[in-house]
Amino acid sequence: MADIRSVFAGIKSPNPFWLASAPPTDKAYNVERAYKAGWGGVVWKTLGEDGPPVVNVNGPRYGAIWGADRRLLGLNNIELITDRDLHLNLREIKQVKKNWPDRALVVSLMVPCEEQAWKAILPLVEETGADGVELNFGCPHGMSERGMGSAVGQVPDYVEMVVRWCKQTTRMPVITKLTPNITDIRQPARAAHRAGSDAVSLINTINSITGVNLDTFAPEPTIDGKGSHGGFCGPAVKPIALHMVSEIARDPETAGLPISGIGGITTWRDAAEFLALGAGNLQVCTAAMTYGFKVVQEMIEGLQNWMDAKGHASLDDVIGRAAPNLREWQHLNLNYVAKARIDQDMCIKCGRCHIACEDTSHQAITAMVDGKRHFEVMEEECVGCNLCVNVCPVDGCIDMVPLAAGTLDKRTGATVSADYANWTTHPNNPMAAAAK
Amino acid sequence: MADGLYADGIAAGRLPGEDYEKNFADLHPPLDGHEARVEADRCYFCYDAPCMTACPTSIDIPMFIRQIATGNALGSAKTIFDQNILGGMCARVCPTETLCEEACVREEAEGKPVQIGRLQRFATDAAMQAQRQFYQRGAASGKTVAIVGAGPAGLACAHRLAMHGHAVTIYEAREKSGGLNEFGIAAYKTPDGFAQAEVYYVTAIGGITIERGKALGRDIALAELARAHDAVFLGMGLAGVNALRAEGEDVDGVENAVDYIAMLRQADDLGRLPIGRRVVVIGGGMTAIDAAVQARLLGAEEVTICYRRGQEQMNASQFEQDLAASKGVAIRHWLQPKRVIAENGRVTGIELEYTVLSNGRLAGTGETLTLKADQVFKAIGQSFDAAGLNGSGAAVALTGGRIQVDGEGRTSMPKVWAGGDCIAGGDDLTVSAVAQGRDGAESIHRALAG
């Protein structure tokens, strides 16, 4: 069976699945339940500086969006960092680490953007025996108004400055957690890397409002008639997270920097995709908050099954394998031609492919043939856009079939070339580097 | 002599009192809000949706389901009522398994169609419970239209005519409106006085007068109606019942299924409604099923449907047949009634002959079977009773014993339209009657406006 033991930034865990810093990791009770359920590690919910803890709202802390059958697709929160006493947390961390020596225990931190504040808290964490720290430069709500969280993560210079303070102060591995609420995710990653961060983790939550109550005209979640933007997470954010992870994984300036992948990981498949795009391990929160800690068992099992089936012996065989296949658009092969093909035996004749193509795309799918309801691709019109595949309710009913080199593309009248050719040399490109 | 379940002959009170309410409760309980949302989410919002094509009233089903999914039940109800003002009843009684739900692409995909009928009920119930009226009576046109029959066709016709501002008088032979909705459908499909509630809802638009106890040919004459009104719409349904053509059928205990169902529907206390211990129902359609199932629900010990052809030829849908089987009704095929056996003028059994199809024709084999029976229900179809029609004076052409109409519902007699079960080529469905009533009204309106 595939070996999924993980070593991330020097931190060992029996599997790559950690619980992200969030409500599920706020205290010993939850963390021990998580370890019992099989989680490889946790990032303890963010600790703040010594003194009176922050307070949370006493109304709703979460909002959500749902898909069919009220399946939770995205979750938003306005909860702050831990509202428990610092020393209580530290005592529990120490005890839990002692009880569970084989599991990873990383402590998330967020203190004011002052050298003294960071240098004061790090030794306290070190004393617990925790495996590392994660710097929370991500939370976009509440704490950011106080100059912490994403307010730091959005300014690469601050990221670099704080990471440097931490690296000067502690022997523990430092993971820098990044906010996605930024234009170019590589900038804060590079800053963290310059300052010697041992790893980055991303994404933290995305600024969001999940809805508006149309009776009261209040944004949701609503506290006494008012709302505040919160951090969005869950399955809906996965594509954004995958992209940001891959951006850092491919960036030559941060080559080799371990990445902890976070953002909507719900199944083993999601996890494998993050690994393939360059994540070294995985952090999960919403899936656990939706279904409980047991979901990790499916993730572990599923990942191993897939690795066994594909002959991947260890995580290193998987990590980053898809990253080289991510290219800039201009380097995609314009001589590749694919056409949609509808499997008539699988087609249930809902007609969604037709109407999507007819109304909004290329008028390339029939609705009626010889007086009968019949949906078929007209190759002479099909540009291979894949919209029909995406709207079809039957998995596998519509395929994109590549045309073999030498065959005729009925739409363009040209013969499909076996040669690779991209935009950089295309005659329509005024900037084309003409190959002479 | 035994009481209750095992009382011989035809007897009332076969069951403990509380069983009647339970037995005749809603066959398909209403969906609650969550169930409706989940079910609505299953709809694919098909292009040129097959369900919509399969609906005789062409309700925009994907749209009304989408409106439910988005929490807009009243908007959904309006989408339904725009095409079918009796959408509430149709939601309950339509054989959806052979109409919209059979056409649903989910039926093809997974053998489990979206429950369109129950969703339609969810939306229409919401509007009716909120007493929300979506339509206003049109500005008075000065024209008057007479409608014969306050059943589904007549009500749908009246509502659409009222929308166009015509003054409508409906003449109803019975003392209660609703037609088969009130008198002819199994009680468990439309409990709690829904048929009357719907009559009220439909006529609340105004401009519709219903005169009850007025039968064509008895109290009113067609020629007189045509003279006194700008147009007439005939929607009187089928008053006749086909005979068994079995020897000795004119004895006590041999009854028309439709009459028994009508009696059941009007009964205040089902515990006082007599039913046989052993009941045989002759026929293979919905009425046969409705009679047989209700006989069981009233406590009949043995109920057997005998149909002269095979299972595939039964007019009752598979769902209805399964329903009957689940209620303990035995369905026997290839048996035709030969002779009713009676003692002292009361039925005690029925002799049936086995049948076969030979060269496409049904023929008796000569072999017979005798079933004990305290009560025999005839459910072998109804016929149009033309006596009241041509007896009125003017001739209305018939085809196959029913009123002949053109594509717009016009009869051969000027100013007279017809729709519902009384016309030739009908399929004896409530929903088709509604469509014909509605379309007849539009045709009348065009004629009156022109």
TrEMBL record, chain A:
Gene Ontology cellular component list: cytoplasm
PANTHER family for this protein: DIHYDROPYRIMIDINE DEHYDROGENASE [NADP(+)]
Gene Ontology molecular-function annotations: dihydropyrimidine dehydrogenase (NAD+) activity; iron-sulfur cluster binding; metal ion binding
Protein name per its UniProtKB record: dihydrouracil dehydrogenase (NAD(+))
Superkingdom classification of source: Bacteria
Organism in which the protein naturally occurs: Nitratireductor pacificus pht-3B
Keyword Iron-sulfur: yes
Function in brief: Involved in pyrimidine base degradation. Catalyzes physiologically the reduction of uracil to 5,6-dihydrouracil (DHU) by using NADH as a specific cosubstrate. It also catalyzes the reverse reaction and the reduction of thymine to 5,6-dihydrothymine (DHT).
Catalytic reactions of this protein: 5,6-dihydrothymine + NAD(+) = thymine + NADH + H(+); 5,6-dihydrouracil + NAD(+) = uracil + NADH + H(+)
Entry keyword set: Iron, Iron-sulfur, Metal-binding, Oxidoreductase
Automatic annotation (TrEMBL), chain B:
Gene3D superfamilies (UniProt xref): Alpha-helical ferredoxin, FAD/NAD(P)-binding domain
GO terms assigned for molecular function: dihydropyrimidine dehydrogenase (NAD+) activity; iron-sulfur cluster binding
Residues in 4Fe-4S ferredoxin-type domain copies: 34-64
Matches recorded under InterPro entries: 4Fe4S_Fe-S-bd, DPD_II, FAD/NAD-bd_sf, FAD/NAD-binding_dom, Helical_ferredxn
Needed cofactors: FMN
Entry keyword annotation includes Protein transport: no
Catalytic activity annotation: 5,6-dihydrothymine + NAD(+) = thymine + NADH + H(+); 5,6-dihydrouracil + NAD(+) = uracil + NADH + H(+)
Entry's EC annotation: 1.3.1.1
SUPFAM superfamilies per UniProt: alpha-helical ferredoxin (SSF46548), Nucleotide-binding domain (SSF51971)
Keywords, comma-separated and alphabetical: Flavoprotein, FMN, Oxidoreductase
Domain of life from the UniProt record: Bacteria
Keyword Flavoprotein applies: yes
Assembly and interaction partners: Heterotetramer of 2 PreA and 2 PreT subunits.
Record's function text: Involved in pyrimidine base degradation. Catalyzes physiologically the reduction of uracil to 5,6-dihydrouracil (DHU) by using NADH as a specific cosubstrate. It also catalyzes the reverse reaction and the reduction of thymine to 5,6-dihydrothymine (DHT).
Protein name: dihydrouracil dehydrogenase (NAD(+))
Provenance organism: Nitratireductor pacificus pht-3B
